TrEMBL record:
Active site: 186 (proton acceptor)
Alphabetized Gene3D superfamilies for the sequence: Lactate dehydrogenase/glycoside hydrolase, family 4, C-terminal, NAD(P)-binding Rossmann-like Domain
Positions contributing to substrate binding: 92, 98, 130, 161
Lineage: Bacteria, Pseudomonadati, Acidobacteriota, Holophagae, Acanthopleuribacterales
GO BP term, example: malate metabolic process
Enzyme class: oxidoreductase
Protein known as: Malate dehydrogenase
Described function: Catalyzes the reversible oxidation of malate to oxaloacetate.
Amino acid sequence: MSNTVKVAITGAAGQIGYSLVFRIASGELFGPDTKVVLSLLEIPQAVTALEGLAMELNDCAFPTLAGIEINSDAEKGFDGVNWAILVGAKPRGPGMERNDLISENGPIFTGQGKALQRGASDVRAVVVGNPCNTNALIAAKNAGDVPFNRFSAMTMLDENRARYQLAAKAGVAVTEVQNVTIWGNHSATQYPDFFNATIGGKKATDVISDHDWLKGDFITTVQKRGAAIIKARGKSSAASAANAALDHVKNFHFPTPDGKWFSAAVPSDGSYGVEEGLMFSFPIRTKDDGSYEIVQGLDHNEFAKEKLAKTEAELKGEREIVKDLL
Ligand code: NAX
């Protein structure tokens, strides 16, 4: 196996990009023995900013950084990449509805899907730019013969947020909280599943006796955490989103420890009754051959089924808005 990994990052001059690139270049993501070539992509107006970013990266003198490429042309930027982290997207403007954002950002991902097909023969792509599930669906549907399951969307930030909330409520270290699945869309309809989560190896519902909190404030806090951060910081989550993108790539790149799983939005294969082909967040484990599987057999009570149905309906609605791009 080659010990050089080429990683493309779109929107690299943005705020998530600035938190992401140094950590990848430092060797934190793939380890000290793997060299990294960074392919940074931006819109033409932001290429100068990328040149400044490249100077800073070089000035870190990271032993693992084997090269930096800068492009505003996706086809060139995706040439030969192993991982594409698709962060670049337009933010929601004043008075803009979610549906407007879906229509505005969709075309970016048709172009990037096509460019991935032409440029990269062995690629995995994760979409961070919102609405990330639907953007990932658009990219995948435009990527020709790149297998559908090479595309995913990031719900790892939601999982990390949920793990922190459960740990804080139980008064334990966050490492004690495992197997918190985010089901569905990276949006306010997502379902952070505490029923199948564990705290210190026990069921979370046995450790946290306040089930009203679990069914109420816990879920809404996780669903609305992004908005709470914007309100407090005046800007959207950036370092935590970059951190989650690293976790996402690590989760797919390295074997999942026994008995554990992680959340990511991947193409549904019909598991848990979710319509096949929707880009839906599920519990995921990697397999020995480097591919992944959706963890089967988790129980859903009526409460959970209702939540799953709601987030699935939202994703179908988003897909309807972009149907001309698929
Ligand atoms: P910024 O506005 O700081 O950066 C976005 C960058 O993307 C800009 O520099 C812009 O020039 C670039 N860009 C736009 N179109 C592009 C294209 N076609 N090709 C290449 N670059 C392009 O936003 P930032 O805070 O970094 O957030 C980026 C995206 O992440 C947004 O869509 C945001 O909503 C989304 N998020 C997703 C999260 C998740 O958990 N999935 C959480 C954090 C974040 O909200």
